[in-house]
């Protein structure tokens, strides 16, 4: 029995590739600004999940940047909205070469994960948000974008004895839909609270954006911000390398707000 899989491809790079499992073919597509829909793509139920990658690699002023946007994936047998974005922990830290292989060559962000300790912390944060906030996007608007919050009280929650109990939770003010309707566009670059399990010396930041998708220009500006923030003494005889990726919707902890992961490290300049 075949399962029907629906893929939506979003362009965010100079080239893109559609990788199908258990095949050797790779279909190339030019740079796309609008969604390209692949419908009625049938795969055996035991096949691996298909994915789409958008690798970009270039050197400028001693900087190497890898950037791609993976596909949003919708399958008839799977609900993307039910995912928590939390994957099983990694057993060993990822090296820079591992990251190049996963992000730029394979284009499969599902292979990246966190350490066991960080995974536990991430799950605890997710549980806290579900208990105390209207949504994960409300939490991010207040924590990352420093928006105001307001307390909401509901009276449709029943206790064990059937009595109606008040339910208190926080929501952002204004909320995401209001900001988008008003045409608000804003970005924030912050260290990742729950970084991937990477080698020592590799930093992990997150570039958040409301009011649109994270663009290549947004990533380049973030890269320059990180470069300018590095102490000059640390860069003597060294260069900084960067790599960025945007997870598909079913891997995101906050699917309503676009964000990019930016990985960076310092390494010796080539002679």
UniProtKB/TrEMBL annotation:
This is Uncharacterized protein. GO terms for biological process: N-acetylglucosamine metabolic process. The lineage of its organism: Eukaryota, Sar, Stramenopiles, Ochrophyta, Bacillariophyta. It comes from Corethron hystrix. InterPro entries: DUF3605 (IPR022036). One of its GO terms (cellular component) is cytoplasm. It comes from the Eukaryota. Pfam families: DUF3605.
